[in-house]
Amino acid sequence: MKKSLSSFIALCFLVIVLETGRVKATSRDLNDVILLANQQIQQPYRTGYHFQPPSNWMNDPNGPMLYQGVYHFFYQYNPYAATFGDVIIWAHAVSYDLVNWIHLDPAIYPTQEADSKSCWSGSATILPGNIPAMLYTGSDSKSRQVQDLAWPKNLSDPFLREWVKHPKNPLIIPPEGVKDDCFRDPSTAWRGPDGVWRIVVGGDRDNNGMALLYQSTDFVNWKRYDQPLSSAIATGTWECPDFYPVPLNSTNGLDTSVYGGSVRHVMKAGFEGHDWYTIGTYSPDRENFLPQNGLSLTGSTLDLRYDYGQFYASKSFFDDAKNRRVLWAWVPETDAPEDDIEKGWAGLQSFPRALWIDRSGKQLIQWPIEEIEELRQNEVNLQNKNLKPGSVLEIHGITASQADVTISFKLEELKDAEVLDTTSVDPQVLCNERGASSRGAIGPFGLLAMASKDLKEQSAIFFRVFQNQLGRYSVLMCSDLSRSTVRSNIDTTSYGAFVDIDPKSEEISLRNLIDHSIIESFGAGGKTCITSRIYPQFVNNEEAHLFAFNNGTQNVKISKMSAWSMKNAAFVVDQNVKSAA
């Protein structure tokens, strides 16, 4: 243990030198390194390459952006405890690659009457002249949710360490008919052909959720448009709305102000603990958003979601350096608050995902940004490996608790698939009823991640194929957490969704980002995504294992598999930090 600890400290020291350019480490640097080393050894649920602060509570991502070659990430943070608190502020970190991060001092915290109780979620907009502006929700002295404005104090500082607030805050107050505590999370602004800025703010009237539309010519004086840009009945308050364009027939991203015939728009809203979205056509001259096929956000099993697991309060931004749209989301804990207090931290961020519209135009595709490949090492490959019914195959040669795994399955015969009309079935209920131990014909087959050697603990990410009476096939993707831990007081709900793929003509692919207490799963090249939190007991005493499995009655072939151990990303504290977030 002493040898591994010293090696880890030496590695982290090198990271500090690379990140800061200082050959000599300060005592503070070494203390940070020792703290990180102890966390990795003593806290098996702390991650290696997913973003999280050194300590305390974190939730929503806020205002991600690129400024002067530096990526900025802000997030909701309780500076005093590992639980949600009475005072929430904006913590701040920066990166050159969205993988390795430097923690800075908090950026926005209560200093005005308009945000005296908390500084809640908001978004970044880059104004003409390359000036970042933050619109965010303040909780004022009367506990009203109001919308405030802040901007950098020193534009020549690429780290944007200090922020100032508009003296006229709040700029927007709750409108008539919207409760004072149901009006929050302004979006990134976009500019129409008339030169007018627009934003949406989440709210509800009589439990009917909506994205309230506001307009401004100067980014300070805002006027509410008569009708919301989008709304739905009986969803409750819409949180963290996001509205942005996506180009047809391209994986590129677009600036938020782009519109036109070859562009569709995405409306995303958070409610009922999930992030829902719909794709449609936006007409800025009429302030009209028309969802395609008439589908609106209702929270039904037919609606689209970014992710069908633990993934909420997401925020996207346009990365103009790489011409892509990048998506973040809060991944909450699913253990007990008492566990979080003992750990001293709570909350992760999903690994940043590139996002674009599928060729069909019916849904979005999400995929980990390419920079993640910097962390790969010790590649292991398999090809044309048969998985017989009931078989389990261990994948050796990687660190199974911190890995990136891609695998494709080929199905030789489909005629014996289970018969089920899936048109009115809730896929999550189906995954809970027919988990990895429930034998079918074609499936369940997939991966057993973060598994103990004896398989008493395992997290199964798998597929199952059904057919209806007409012979049309449906592919179900599940994340079965029922055996993920033997610990009590852990939420082991299983998650599931159908995958838009034809198994007659396409292989079924799966990618898993495994990082101790989180598994991000991407089915069919990112058509269906499921994020899970896991807390296996065995990791306190032994190494994790990874297996491919087939619990169906039909053979399944692994056409190809590549797996990598993942190095730790660098998370260091800036030498000028006064009170690290």
TrEMBL record:
Keywords: Glycosidase, Hydrolase, Signal. The keyword Hydrolase applies. It comes from the Eukaryota. SUPFAM superfamilies: Arabinanase/levansucrase/invertase, Concanavalin A-like lectins/glucanases. GO terms for biological process: carbohydrate metabolic process. Residues 1-25 form the signal peptide. Gene3D superfamilies: Exo-inulinase, domain 1, Glycosyl hydrolase domain, family 43. PROSITE patterns: GLYCOSYL_HYDROL_F32. The keyword Nucleotidyltransferase does not apply. Residues 50-368 form the Glycosyl hydrolase family 32 N-terminal domain. Pfam families: Glyco_hydro_32C (PF08244), Glyco_hydro_32N (PF00251). Residues 371-565 form the Glycosyl hydrolase family 32 C-terminal domain. GO terms for molecular function: hydrolase activity, hydrolyzing O-glycosyl compounds. Belongs to the glycosyl hydrolase 32 family. PANTHER family: BETA-FRUCTOFURANOSIDASE, INSOLUBLE ISOENZYME CWINV1-RELATED (PTHR31953). This is Fructan 1-exohydrolase IIb. It comes from Cichorium intybus (Chicory). The gene is 1-FEH IIb.
